[in-house]
């Protein structure tokens, strides 16, 4: 099963995971992406990918795991609980600015080349229309938010909230539920991004 297999995507999955590859389809059984792990404070300013080891993918997964360990940004891996494996990656130097802007919730200030990369990376998996609207401060989304909230939102305001550090932090007590990736691709499950 390729891609992301979680019902509760973090914003890191949408906006930071693309820093690690060309397409979400390069990754197998990713449960979620995080900015932090409460048990690993030494890895501040890193990207965490939580994977679910699955007997269904045993043969391909071990070679996939080896390829992650050969990734130029790979730092560490560990088993936070059974059957999960966490991989830790450095933030690529060329994307440090975007990482910092992400932390501040300033999605529209990402370089245009990174915005395009996010949309290409996530293509077919997430509701890229909403992601695009956030990245490019869509007037339509701006009006939607004003109507939904019943308030006037200043022009130029970001159209998605600042990432919640608590939600972007992996905690051992987290128990992510896996779902079939095809249900995401065909729109039967809705991520937090799709709800904005």
Low-confidence stretches: 175-196
**Termini Cα gap:** 27 Å
Number of domains as seen in the coordinates: 1
Structural class by sheet pairing and helices: alpha+beta
Assign a percent range to the helix content. Answer: 25-40%
Number of helices: 7
What is the C-alpha radius of gyration, as a whole number of Å?
17 Å
Please state the oligomeric state of the protein chains shown: single chain
Widest sheet: strand ordering: 1-3-5-4
Order of helices and strands: HEEEHEEHHHHEH
Task: Tell how many strands the DSSP assignment holds.
Answer: 6
Mean pLDDT level: 83
Strand content: 15-25%
Mind explaining what this structure looks like?
With 196 residues, the protein is an alpha+beta fold. It has one domain (11-167, 176-195). It is 31% helix and 16% strand. The protein has seven helices and six strands, in the order αβββαββααααβα. The chain has helices at 11-15, 58-69, 96-103, 112-122, 128-135, 139-149, 181-185; strands at 30-34, 36-37, 46-52, 74-81, 84-90, 169-170. The strands form two sheets. A four-stranded antiparallel β-sheet has the order 1-3-5-4. The two termini are 27 Å apart. 32% of the residues are buried. The model is unreliable at 175-196 (pLDDT under 50).
Keywords:
four-stranded antiparallel sheet; two-stranded parallel sheet; 196 residues; alpha+beta; disordered C terminus
How do the helices and strands line up, and which of them pair or pack?
Elements lengths: L10 H5 L14 E5 L1 E2 L8 E7 L5 H12 L4 E8 L2 E7 L5 H8 L8 H11 L5 H8 L3 H11 L19 E2 L10 H5 L11
Parallel strand pairs: 2-6
Antiparallel strand pairs: 1-3, 3-5, 4-5
């Amino acid at each position: 099963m390729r891609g992301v297999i979680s019902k509760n995507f973090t914003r890191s999955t949408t906006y930071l995971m693309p820093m690690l590859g060309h397409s979400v389809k390069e990754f197998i059984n990713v449960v979620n992406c995080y900015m932090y792990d409460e048990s690993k404070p030494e890895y501040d300013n890193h990207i965490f990918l939580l994977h679910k080891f699955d007997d269904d993918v045993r043969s391909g997964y071990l070679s996939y795991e080896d390829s992650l360990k050969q990734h130029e940004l790979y730092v560490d891996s560990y088993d936070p609980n059974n059957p999960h494996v966490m991989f830790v990656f450095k933030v690529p130097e060329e994307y440090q600015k975007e990482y910092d802007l992400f932390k501040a919730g300033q999605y529209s200030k990402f370089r245009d080349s990174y915005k395009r990369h996010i949309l290409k990376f996530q293509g077919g998996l997430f509701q890229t229309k909403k992601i695009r609207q956030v990245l490019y401060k869509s007037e339509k989304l701006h009006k939607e938010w004003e109507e939904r909230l019943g308030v006037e939102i200043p022009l130029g305001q970001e159209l998605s909230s600042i990432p919640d550090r608590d939600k972007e932090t992996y905690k051992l007590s987290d128990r992510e539920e896996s779902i079939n990736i095809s249900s995401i691709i065909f729109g039967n499950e809705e991520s937090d991004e799709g709800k904005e």
